[in-house]
């Protein structure tokens, strides 16, 4: 369904700006099936996707169809219930991609049906990225959804023997990383990486200027990064937590739902050992090293039979490099 692709694209555009609310996209079709309204969830406190799409459609929504990436909400919070907004607009049908998993907001489909509106659930297109996946995962887990990101050589090393790692991947891959950062609620690194590399963790354009949307920047570890490092990271806006558990709990409480673990190997190993990694982003550069530093500092499985398997969900060509993404799948 073309309308669903448009709605998913609208949701993708606002990813990274809506947490703790989901990045929902919505489309309104008029009675003839033409797109007359498109909307996406606004930052917290602002209108939801359905309301934005209805505003865009105006009177053309009457007798039409709404296509939404998440079941319309059924509760009043900082904004009114979207199910009632659709009823008030006199739409004839509503189709949604995901049911709302939250007890306080779910049930919109029942309300719509009781008002005489046709309601149906759609199947996700396999070729399209789903901006709601991290939010849905976070709701189910009760903690932020975690993506572990790393760049490696063709033979699996993240740095050469001398420790150099800039640059394993090329410009297109690095630009993709910065675009991806704008869609995250927070980026996490370990204290070792913070002290050794003094990273900014900002999302930048190729010319070095800052992108409008920036993630929270988080350092995890017991070492003090306020003194003795190249810069005072906390003064520059970094949050500092002693452990992954403390970081995830506080980040979730303060609204983060979609976070990226960028380094280093010690922190990556901790998240893997704790079972906190939900998705993997492996940027594979066109270089062979033969020897060097690995992605992790220690084994997370002693044999192949006991090793966790992951389901490949996306492969993206970035110049001479590849981004291969995997998600956790308990069925494998």
TrEMBL record:
<feature type="binding site">
    <location>
        <position position="165"/>
    </location>
    <ligand>
        <name>substrate</name>
    </ligand>
</feature>
<feature type="binding site">
    <location>
        <position position="262"/>
    </location>
    <ligand>
        <name>substrate</name>
    </ligand>
</feature>
<keyword id="KW-0511">Multifunctional enzyme</keyword>
<dbReference type="InterPro" id="IPR024072">
    <property type="entry name" value="DHFR-like_dom_sf"/>
</dbReference>
<dbReference type="Pfam" id="PF01872">
    <property type="entry name" value="RibD_C"/>
</dbReference>
<dbReference type="InterPro" id="IPR002734">
    <property type="entry name" value="RibDG_C"/>
</dbReference>
<dbReference type="GO" id="GO:0008835">
    <property type="term" value="F:diaminohydroxyphosphoribosylaminopyrimidine deaminase activity"/>
</dbReference>
<dbReference type="GO" id="GO:0009231">
    <property type="term" value="P:riboflavin biosynthetic process"/>
</dbReference>
<feature type="binding site">
    <location>
        <begin position="264"/>
        <end position="270"/>
    </location>
    <ligand>
        <name>NADP(+)</name>
    </ligand>
</feature>
<keyword id="KW-0686">Riboflavin biosynthesis</keyword>
<feature type="binding site">
    <location>
        <position position="73"/>
    </location>
    <ligand>
        <name>Zn(2+)</name>
    </ligand>
</feature>
<feature type="binding site">
    <location>
        <position position="201"/>
    </location>
    <ligand>
        <name>substrate</name>
    </ligand>
</feature>
<dbReference type="Pfam" id="PF00383">
    <property type="entry name" value="dCMP_cyt_deam_1"/>
</dbReference>
<feature type="binding site">
    <location>
        <position position="82"/>
    </location>
    <ligand>
        <name>Zn(2+)</name>
    </ligand>
</feature>
<feature type="binding site">
    <location>
        <position position="222"/>
    </location>
    <ligand>
        <name>NADP(+)</name>
    </ligand>
</feature>
<feature type="binding site">
    <location>
        <position position="151"/>
    </location>
    <ligand>
        <name>NADP(+)</name>
    </ligand>
</feature>
<dbReference type="InterPro" id="IPR016193">
    <property type="entry name" value="Cytidine_deaminase-like"/>
</dbReference>
<dbReference type="InterPro" id="IPR050765">
    <property type="entry name" value="Riboflavin_Biosynth_HTPR"/>
</dbReference>
<feature type="domain" description="CMP/dCMP-type deaminase">
    <location>
        <begin position="1"/>
        <end position="110"/>
    </location>
</feature>
<keyword id="KW-0560">Oxidoreductase</keyword>
<feature type="binding site">
    <location>
        <position position="48"/>
    </location>
    <ligand>
        <name>Zn(2+)</name>
    </ligand>
</feature>
<comment type="similarity">
    <text>In the C-terminal section; belongs to the HTP reductase family.</text>
</comment>
<keyword id="KW-0378">Hydrolase</keyword>
<feature type="binding site">
    <location>
        <position position="193"/>
    </location>
    <ligand>
        <name>NADP(+)</name>
    </ligand>
</feature>
<feature type="binding site">
    <location>
        <position position="181"/>
    </location>
    <ligand>
        <name>substrate</name>
    </ligand>
</feature>
<feature type="binding site">
    <location>
        <position position="204"/>
    </location>
    <ligand>
        <name>substrate</name>
    </ligand>
</feature>
<comment type="function">
    <text>Converts 2,5-diamino-6-(ribosylamino)-4(3h)-pyrimidinone 5'-phosphate into 5-amino-6-(ribosylamino)-2,4(1h,3h)-pyrimidinedione 5'-phosphate.</text>
</comment>
<dbReference type="GO" id="GO:0008703">
    <property type="term" value="F:5-amino-6-(5-phosphoribosylamino)uracil reductase activity"/>
</dbReference>
<keyword id="KW-0862">Zinc</keyword>
<feature type="binding site">
    <location>
        <position position="167"/>
    </location>
    <ligand>
        <name>substrate</name>
    </ligand>
</feature>
<feature type="active site" description="Proton donor">
    <location>
        <position position="50"/>
    </location>
</feature>
<protein>
    <recommendedName>
        <fullName>Riboflavin biosynthesis protein RibD</fullName>
        <ecNumber>3.5.4.26</ecNumber>
        <ecNumber>1.1.1.193</ecNumber>
    </recommendedName>
</protein>
<feature type="binding site">
    <location>
        <position position="197"/>
    </location>
    <ligand>
        <name>NADP(+)</name>
    </ligand>
</feature>
<keyword id="KW-0521">NADP</keyword>
<feature type="region of interest" description="Disordered">
    <location>
        <begin position="1"/>
        <end position="20"/>
    </location>
</feature>
<dbReference type="InterPro" id="IPR016192">
    <property type="entry name" value="APOBEC/CMP_deaminase_Zn-bd"/>
</dbReference>
<keyword id="KW-0479">Metal-binding</keyword>
<dbReference type="InterPro" id="IPR002125">
    <property type="entry name" value="CMP_dCMP_dom"/>
</dbReference>
<comment type="pathway">
    <text>Cofactor biosynthesis; riboflavin biosynthesis; 5-amino-6-(D-ribitylamino)uracil from GTP: step 2/4.</text>
</comment>
<comment type="similarity">
    <text>In the N-terminal section; belongs to the cytidine and deoxycytidylate deaminase family.</text>
</comment>
<dbReference type="GO" id="GO:0008270">
    <property type="term" value="F:zinc ion binding"/>
</dbReference>
<dbReference type="InterPro" id="IPR004794">
    <property type="entry name" value="Eubact_RibD"/>
</dbReference>
């Amino acid at each position: 369904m073309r309308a669903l692709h448009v709605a998913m694209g609208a949701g993708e555009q606002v990813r990274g700006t809506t947490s703790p609310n989901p990045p929902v996209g919505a489309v309104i079709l008029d009675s003839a099936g033409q797109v007359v309204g498109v909307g996406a969830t606004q930052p917290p406190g602002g209108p939801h996707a359905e309301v934005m799409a209805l505003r865009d459609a105006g009177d053309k929504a009457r007798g039409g169809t709404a296509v939404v990436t998440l079941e319309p909400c059924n509760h009043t919070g900082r904004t009114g219930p979207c199910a009632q907004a659709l009823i008030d607009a006199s739409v004839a049908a509503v189709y949604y991609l995901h049911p709302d998993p939250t007890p306080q907001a779910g049930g919109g489909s029942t309300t719509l049906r009781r008002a005489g509106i046709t309601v149906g659930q759609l199947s996700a297109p396999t070729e399209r990225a789903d901006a709601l996946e991290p939010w849905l995962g976070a709701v189910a887990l009760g903690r932020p959804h975690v993506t572990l990101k790393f760049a490696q050589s063709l033979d699996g090393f993240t740095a050469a023997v001398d420790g150099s790692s800039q640059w394993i991947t090329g410009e297109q891959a690095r630009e993709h990383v910065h675009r991806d950062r704008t869609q995250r609620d927070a980026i996490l690194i370990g204290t070792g990486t913070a002290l050794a590399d003094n990273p900014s963790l900002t999302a930048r354009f190729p010319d070095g200027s800052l992108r409008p949307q920036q993630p929270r920047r988080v350092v995890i570890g017991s070492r003090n990064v306020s003194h003795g490092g190249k810069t005072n990271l906390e003064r520059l806006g970094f949050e500092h937590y002693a452990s992954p558990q403390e970081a995830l709990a506080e980040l979730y409480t303060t609204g983060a739902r979609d976070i990226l673990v960028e380094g280093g190997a010690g922190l990556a190993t901790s998240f893997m050992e704790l079972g906190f990694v939900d998705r993997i982003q492996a940027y594979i550069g066109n270089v062979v090293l033969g020897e060097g530093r690995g992605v992790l500092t220690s084994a997370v499985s002693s044999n192949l039979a006991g090793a966790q398997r992951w389901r490949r969900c996306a492969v993206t060509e970035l110049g001479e490099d590849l981004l291969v993404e995997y998600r956790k799948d308990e069925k494998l």
